[in-house]
Amino acid sequence: MRRALPVAGLTAARRALSRQSDLVVSFGFYVIVVGVLSALWRAAAESHHGSIAGYSGTALTWYIAASEAATVALNVRMIEYIGQDISGGAVAVEMLRPAPVVLVRLASEAGQGVARVIPLAGLGAAMSTLVAGGPPSLLGATLALPALGLAVVCNLAMQHAVAAAAFWTRDARSSWFLYQKFVFVLGGMLLPLQILPGWLQHVAFSLPFMAMSYVPARLASGHVEPLLLAVQLGWLVVAVAAAVAMFGAGQRRLQVVGG
Amino acid sequence: MRSTTATLRAAFRDAIAQRGAFWSQVGAMVVNDIVWVAFWLIFFHRVGRLRGWDSHRILLLFAILTTSAGLGLGLLSNCRRIGQMAAEGDLDAMLALPVPTLGHLLVRRVDTVNLGDFAFGVVLFAIVGARRPSEVGIYVFGVGASVLIFTGFLVLTGSIAFYAGRSQVGDLGLHAILLLSSYPANVFTGAAKALLYTAVPAAFVAAVPSHLLVSFSLGEAAVLAGAAAVFPLAGWAAFSAGLRRYTSGSLWTRA
User: Are B35 and A33 in contact (CB < 8 Å)?
Assistant: First the structure.
């Protein structure tokens, strides 16, 4: 198993980079969404004498570039597809391998996600520099790089934990929609968590979604807070443990008709 | 026309056949839209007025966008798949039918998820906008124009696959117009703003109709009506010309 996971990750990373048409769509979408959202937030900062909730227009541009890179790097409907694999029986075939299903899947998806997030981060940095200026803090931008990787893996693990509900419900079609909305708002993808009303900020800071978008974005926006990386690591351990536990319990009760 | 109506009716019955899945998907989309409304309320609560926009104006924009996107992507859901179908040779079965290909293709499939958008948009407008009969009339006109522009644009970008083979322009076009039309158009300046009124007509999908609701002018309504004529015509022309280049995939089809 020690070799299986890195091999799965590397193979998936190569596969992701070779699918040029997929890359074109996700890069194009990324450029549009960062262009739109950062313009909105810059206009908001401008109307508040250059700063809102402690973020300048430049900081907000770097924030959005990082938060979007962390989420656009992943397949938005992954929970639905994992659910289809569970209810359709594909997972049963994967159980024949001499390695835990969920860990191989996580390694493979993490390989693809990290392979996509690196060029997206480069693209975001170029866009931000072009429209708003260089990074507010070089150290913060440097810390944002490992945070982006952790955000991607944390998000993947939590999506697997949520999708594993399909072992019981047989259907995960709608849950990806709701999950994404938690990442969008409570994860800080659309807006810095400091913008939220006080009570909602407390809720957002105590949930794992902040590790999936807010942390790399906060660091990239010039707030040098290395402790955030430790918070991400903590949530990563929780998310992987939840995914392993959910898949373990689900696989024990899996029944596939036909084949 | 009768065949188109019959096809749409059959597609609708097919879509709602599994009631549990239908309601869960509609419900998920409504929750999705509520989250967006919450985002905008939080945004304007914190920011205040921004370049003439406030929470009321953005909710009007959102009511028009969800209603028209719900109609376009819900009842005419194949408009987003034209590129994929052209590239994979999925149009074969429709070419054999004695009906106009594009019309039949558009109504052949109903997407239940987007009907949640439609329902949400109507309810949201009833709450925030429908104060006078004239506003209801402007809303109906704006939504009608918006659906025509939105669908025409997606047919146009999807039809590029007839010429370029497997093309991602259709997917990008969908993402671009949905995303750009869901934000206040005057956040943008210069070339980006010009783009929203021309190549990617996102401003006509929601910002212009919502502005008509706030401050109606005949000139702006005429421009909107013009765009609602140009984009469907362009889409139809691109599809019809592209269909002459179409080569079969010898597939009987998921359309």
Answer: no
Q: Give the per-residue pLDDT at A212.
A: 96
Residue B204, amino acid: F
The closest CB to that of B50, out of A32, A44, A171, belongs to: A44
| Inter-chain residue contact B46 with A53, CB threshold 8 Å | yes
Return the residue in B40, B42, B160 with the most chain A beta carbons within 10 A, the one to mutate for interface testing. B42
CB–CB of B170/B158 below 8 Å?
yes
- CA of A24: which chain B residue's CA is closest? B168
| Annotated domain spans of chain B | 2-243
Buried b (16+ CB within 10 A) or exposed e, B117-130: bbbbbbebbeebbe
In this structure, are residues B83 and B157 in contact, taking their beta carbons and an 8 Å threshold?
yes
Contact A52 B21 (CB under 8 A): no
Residues 6+ apart with CB under 8 A from A179: A79, A159, A162
Nearest chain A CA: its distance from B103 CA (Å): 28
Interface test with B, best of A181, A189, A213 (most B CBs within 10 A): A181
Model confidence at A259, pLDDT cuts 50, 70, 90, reads: very low
CB A250 within 8 A of CB A168: yes
**Taking Cα atoms as reference points, which of B82, B95, B63, B71 lies closest to residue B8?**
B71
**Residue holding tokens 């700063």?**
A51
pLDDT in tens, A224-249: 999 999 999 999 999 999 999 998 88
Question: Over 70: is that where the pLDDT of B250 sits?
Answer: no
> What's the rounded mean pLDDT across residues A19-43?
86
Distance of residue B163 Cα from the nearest chain A Cα, in angstroms: 16
Closest partner residue to A181 (CB to CB) among B32, B45, B172 is: B32
Please answer yes or no on whether A195 and B175 come within 8 Å at the CB atom. no
DSSP secondary structure string, B138-183?
Answer: HHHHHHHHHHHHHHHHHHHHHTHHHHHSS-SHHHHHHHHHHHHHTS
Closest CA to B7 of B69, B75, B74: B75
Residue A80 Cα, gap to closest chain B Cα (Å): 12
Tell me the HSE value of A70 on the side-chain side, using a 13 A CA sphere: 37
Looking from the CA of A25 toward its CB, the CA atoms found within 13 Å total: 17
Residues 6+ apart with CB under 8 A from B54: B44, B48
Better-predicted residue by pLDDT, B84 or B122: B122
Out of A93-97, A193-197, B42-46, B219-223, pick the least confident.
Answer: A93-97
User: In this structure, what token pair is assigned to residue B236?
Assistant: 């139809």
Tokens standing for residue A2: 């020690």
Digit-coded pLDDT (tens) for A153-203: 999 999 999 988 888 877 676 778 788 889 999 999 999 999 999 999 999
What is the nearest CA distance from A128 to chain B, expressed in angstroms? 16
Q: How far is CA B62 from CA A28, A95, A191, B33, B199, in A?
A: 24, 46, 18, 9, 22
